[in-house]
Amino acid sequence: MSAQKAEKKVHIKTWGCQMNVYDSERMADVMAPMGYAQTDQIGEADIVILNTCHIREKATEKVFSELGRMRVHKRAKEKAGGKMAFAVAGCVAQAEGAEILRRDKNVDMVIGSQAYHQLPEIIADWEKSNGTARIINTDFPAEPKFDHLPPAQPRGPSAYIAVQEGCDKFCSFCVVPYTRGSEYSRPAADIIAEIKTQISYGAREVNLLGQNVNAWHGTGTDGKTWNLGTLIFHLAELDGLDRIRYVTSHPNDMHDMLYRAHGEIPQLMPYLHLPIQNGSDKILAAMNRKHTQDDYRRIIDRMRDIRPDMAFSSDFIVGFPGETDADHRETMKIVDYVGYAAAYSFKYSRRPGTPAAKAGKQVLEDIKDIRLQELQKKLYADQTVFNTAKLGMAIPVLFDNRGKRYGQLQGKSPWLQTVNVIAPERLLGQIVDVKITEATQNSLTGEVIPIAPQISSGTHAA
Ligand code: SAH
Ligand code: SF4
Ligand code: F3S
Fold first, then answer.
1. What predicted TM-score, i.e. pTM, was given to this entire model?
2. Which atom of ligand 3 is nearest to the CA of 113?
């Protein structure tokens, strides 16, 4: 009998959104049965996968500088008689394709965002060529990749599950419809099965993921058409699932059932990431968002009526072509109106191939800087106010990580705040009441509230 083959190693580095984080986990799932274990040391890897983001120019350029930095590892491995493959996956791979092979001679494989299920064939071809082949696969397959992925490995107390992918909205600044393809919703039965598996591994929380997650729709397990709200009502029935979240939502896909879910389902966390991008109706129209600031305010008002403790977050773009100071004031107005718990804000970045890139009236970089600074100052102040308001409160925290300091655990409040607590390791994966003692812009600190001893009431009829 031949000696057991030495284990092969893959190093995966991920940029971009939660969908990319999920995809990286799924790539690892695909490669595990092929004998590839994950490593966080590039030097040890037989294959390095860069799972990339194309959303802004800077994100794309980071990939090429990383490839440059990684070259020494490839050379060292070759000197020692081995091989190290560089694979570029994700949205840059999808958008730039063969251009990546031209631009960097050290790249061996380019794997588009819909081709991960084909990793076994791609890698087998590369191995067969003794590391000389340069392979590109950026096809959008006829059948969704999800149908061809192996069962997921454990994801910890808080599991991310892609339920929807792609986008048909074509906001004029955005590459996602091109890098992820058109909207696709996974069948409810598949989603429920994946969540049940994660619960059996110890997950207490699920984060439903999608580029437009609230556009999710499909045939339910009862044969009827479900929307995201209906799906959440059914997930709430699953034993052992204590928390449900979803991200990212689009204002135009809010629906009655989702509002109802927030009113009626205690497991559905009181948090909504609802990007508005900009406050000016003129800019929103130019962005092809198809909603106004007023439409957005009505969503916020209705949610707050249903769930007064609802927290909101958003994404913002400043300096979109044609944006004036008056337009920017409108963005500041909506920020003031909502009082966000958290937010991401960016300077508009011109993306080749998108309609806005060709627009005249591009805003000067200096002006973008000033507007971004003003916006962020207000957003960070609001975030601090939101966090500080939790001081002294007792909050249920799901511990999903070890903390940075020894003896510390890290968890999440219902409003997605990070909470650091000195707590025993055995509480990892548990939901525990914590008294908040400190609050900063980015996190909370607290103490575990001891559980009062239970007084036995003896036997009683049920
Ligand atoms: N599907 C989500 C998010 C998509 S991308 C949505 O519709 O909101 C994440 C964020 O990146 C966007 O919300 C937007 O704020 C930002 N973004 C996208 N394209 C950009 C560009 N060209 N320049 C700057 N920011 C951009
Ligand atoms: Fe991009 Fe707009 Fe689609 Fe969001 S809704 S992914 S911003 S095109
Ligand atoms: Fe980036 Fe692609 Fe996500 S472009 S934001 S990784 S969908």
1. 0.94
2. 2
